[in-house]
Design a protein that fits this description.
With 431 residues, the chain is α/β, with parallel strands linked by helices. The protein is 38% helix and 22% strand. It folds into two domains: 109 residues, Roll (Urease, subunit C, domain 1); 290 residues, TIM Barrel (Alpha-Beta Barrel). The chain is built from 14 helices and 17 strands. The termini are far apart.
Length: 431
């Protein structure tokens, strides 16, 4: 495909007008201000008038199968929400349910310009099946918990993780990555954390983990581990010795910022979910000041209710300003970078997240003709503060168009909406 006369957000987060972008195979082959000499080799042409081309969004923390719980368990504190609503519902899930919930999220993701997701859940083969069929990308991690101190190697979750890694990592031309994940400090013992860290290093797996989402979680960890914060404790256990995404990090302390920076840990901020559950507001401005790679996650739609990623970008910027009490904190450039390149780096996708020759063609097109986009004093500012997720009109992954003008290429939307509704209804009758 050749995009012609289109506005582009380039690799430096600058807005460029009347550009030509040629896609060949899975990659961006050409970016320039003139018609390419080999234009015929790009196939069909896309008229970029009143359109913005940019990197797709990388959702750095999610629990996609929980789409079946959207709107279930509202207006509850986090721990009550989990124990009284979410855990009992999850106990009834089957592999087919997880497939349908994941597929539902992949459809919603494509609609809102999300090209890749970092997922933490279980029933890994069923999640793999959904991602593979949808055409999207995903870093799928099998969440490890160990409440009773069971032997690490004998945990069914560990066996599932190792099997999934051996069978699925790198499949679909690298679209699917299998990663380790520790659910959290408070759902495991020290031997489990250390053993998982060693396994990840042995297999060269990425790591996902919840960190300091609530003040209670943070302070109780310090009581259990001699004053050590979750960040310090997990670092001491070796969990950050591989590429790691730490989700939330709402209540981290001064030394924690230094540890995360030194270890090269990405923080996946989840502003909407954190605000909805009243967990607090992460100090994202300080994270950027400490050169911590910042990415954005939606968490589950059970605690967010939507995968509208442009809304998430706006909330990241606004929440960061509120926390810092500084209107200059979190610039539009920083927010867009976190949603794109920051998320791609979090996932170990070095060749993704930028509109640049040689990069994977994970791209989205937005309609910028609407009144909310005008006047244009600064297009990035309009993108962050004025745009809507419904402005996304095309989503491309690895050079393949998967969503265009409300239509899906690989997903039967009506079928998955029906099946997801049936699955949720069946489970509710059992509760």
């Amino acid at each position: 495909m050749l995009f012609k006369n289109i506005t582009v957000i380039d690799e430096d987060m600058n807005v460029k007008h009347n550009r030509y972008v040629g896609i060949k195979g899975e990659k961006i082959d050409y970016v320039g201000d003139s018609f390419p000499e080999n234009a015929s080799g790009y196939g069909r042409t896309y008229d970029g008038s009143n359109r913005l081309l940019m990197s797709g969004f990388y959702n750095a923390h999610a629990h996609s199968p929980m789409a079946l719980m959207r709107g279930y368990g509202e207006n509850m504190a986090l721990r009550d929400w989990l124990e009284k609503k979410i855990f009992p519902f999850e106990a009834k899930l089957t592999g087919d349910d997880v497939y349908r919930g994941t597929m539902l999220c992949m459809a919603e993701s494509l609609k809102f310009g999300i090209v890749s997701t970092s997922d933490m859940y279980y029933f890994t083969p069923d999640m793999v099946r959904a991602v593979a069929e949808s055409g999207t990308k995903n870093n799928i991690s099998r969440s490890i918990v160990n409440f009773d101190g069971s032997e690490f190697a004998k945990l069914e979750a560990v066996k599932e993780l190792v099997d999934a890694y051996d069978r699925y990592d790198g499949m679909e031309s690298g679209r699917i990555k299998i990663e380790a994940s520790l659910h959290a400090e408070y759902t495991s013992d020290e031997n489990t954390v250390k053993s998982l860290a060693e396994l990840a290093k042995e297999k060269n797996m990425g790591m996902q983990v919840h960190v300091s989402e609530t003040e209670t979680e943070h302070e109780e960890c310090k009581l259990r581990h001699g004053g050590r914060t979750p960040v310090r404790y997990l670092a001491d256990c070796g969990l950050f010795d591989v590429r790691t995404v730490a989700a939330h990090c709402v209540h981290i302390e001064e030394d924690d910022f230094e540890i995360l920076s030194e270890k090269g840990v990405t923080v996946a901020a989840n502003p909407v979910s954190n605000m909805k559950l009243a967990s607090g507001i992460a100090d994202t401005a300080k994270m950027l000041e400490k050169n911590i790679n910042l990415a954005i996650g939606t968490d589950s739609v059970a605690s967010n209710n939507s995968l509208n990623f442009i809304e998430e970008i706006k909330m990241l910027a606004l929440a960061g300003k509120i926390r810092a009490e500084d209107p200059t904190a979190i610039t539009p450039e920083e927010a867009v970078y976190a949603a794109t390149r920051g998320g791609a780096l979090a996932q170990g996708r070095e060749n993704c997240g930028l509109v640049k020759e040689g990069m994977k063609a994970d791209l989205i097109v937005l309609d910028i003709s609407g009144a909310q986009w005008h006047p244009v004093h600064n297009l990035l500012t309009n993108l962050v503060y004025s745009a809507s997720g419904d402005d996304v009109v095309l989503t491309m992954v690895d050079g393949k168009v998967l969503y265009k003008d409300g239509e899906y290429v690989k997903i039967d939307k009506e079928k998955i909406l029906f099946e997801a509704g049936q699955a949720a209804g069946r489970i509710l009758k059992q509760l």
